[in-house]
Amino acid sequence: MIIGIPKEIKAQENRVGAVPSSVKEFVAHGHTVLVETQAGAGINHTDDSYIAAGAEICGTAKEIFDRADMILKVKEPQPQECAMLSEGQVLFTYLHLAADAEQTKALMDSGCVAIAYETVTGPGGRGLPLLAPMSEIAGRLSIQVGGSYMLKHLGGCGRLMGGSPGVEAARVLVLGGGVSGFHAAQMAVGMHANVVMLEKGHDRVRWLDDYFGTSARVIQSSRDAVERYIETADLVVGAVLIPGASAPKLVSKDMVASMRPGSVMVDIAIDQGGCFETSKPTTHSDPVYTVNDVIHYCVTNMPGAVPLTSAQALNNAVLPYALELADHGWEAALLSDPNLRNGLNVCYGEITHQGVAESLDLPFVAQPKALAA
Questions:
Q1: Which of 35, 185, 199, 347 could form a disulfide with 177, with the two C-beta atoms 3.0–4.6 Å apart?
Q2: What is the tens place of the pLDDT at every residue in 207-257?
Q3: Do the domains at 2-128+307-372 and 132-305 have one common CATH topology?
């Protein structure tokens, strides 16, 4: 198979779909890898390092899209990239279609086979192994950036995350106890903040309570609990996820209005539409805005701020699945692996993920004709 690695063109995105070590694995399996020139420059991977791994360097993204059987990326394709996709071409990347009708239509129109990292499931259909490493990084990063924006000169309340002897530490509220929420709480506890986690699942509440013990309070999530704890929070982290679907709006405008001036909100779920009613997508170059004197950080590619870490973590997780697709072809790979098949979102113009279809009010096709054939 010919695998194409274009340079990411989303604002401030320096990750890359395949690092040289991944390219070496593809080549060892007998595949051809095309890499756009300077694709890895943002994380110090030169064209020469890709050539040494066995890749062919291409001068333009168009050459990549014209020649490749499978496009391997990090972020969702931008409009100009969607226009270059062709019928039957495999696209393997993060898509987050539930909050993006325009991209969904473009992928449908292209006739491509779009497989989303974020809906590939783990053994037994549990877990999201290709979303997990970025969720881990986003969770940890949420505390780092949230603590920074609490600094007074950046518009925050001026409270130190861990406080000081005799002085109260910051109050951190984490909404959601999944992968990103867990890692956010873990970081906040490590910085000696006062941490409250709200989680809906009963079994998960018990697990989190056992893990954190007295270092964080784990509370059964409810509207009343959100309203009660958000009023005194210095930092709120939104970390809820419904695979493939839009994130639920857990925090209303009225709740934001009840918060203290200079408090900070970090919406990790912004890729899926956000879990705060006042959320809107931002970029690393302009990451925050205020609503009712509350700072909102809603960057849609948070792990892109630490591309050296996140590109390698993502490659480690994606490589086995990408090799499965390349070695066997997408049809055989999806038919033999139901967890990889759960990643199929768009196939020859049909929506094949129920959560995406319901979020966008589009027809859902459980068994696409191309796969059935």
A1: 199
A2: 999 999 999 999 999 999 999 999 999 999 999 988 777 889 999 999 999
A3: yes
Q: pTM, whole model, 2 decimals? A: 0.86
C-alpha–C-alpha distance, residues 1 and 150, integer Å: 49
| CATH superfamily membership of 132-305 | NAD(P)-binding Rossmann-like Domain (3.40.50.720)
**pLDDT tens per residue across span 29-38:** 999 999 999 9
Active site residues: 96, 271
Nearest Cα to 42, choosing from 68, 74, 71, 65?
Answer: 74
Q: How many whole angstroms from its chain centre is CA 365?
A: 25
> What are phi and psi for residue 301, nearest 5 degrees?
-130, 65
Listed by start position, the domains of the chain span 2-128+307-372, 132-305
Residues 6+ apart with CB under 8 A from 154: 148, 295
Phi, psi for residue 148 in degrees, rounded to 5: -65, -45
pLDDT in tens, 199-208: 999 999 999 9
Segment 342-369, tens digit of pLDDT: 999 999 999 999 999 999 999 999 888 8
In CATH, 2-128+307-372 is 3.40.30.10:
no
H-run or E-run covering 148: helix 132-149
> Hey, what are 196's tokens?
């409250």
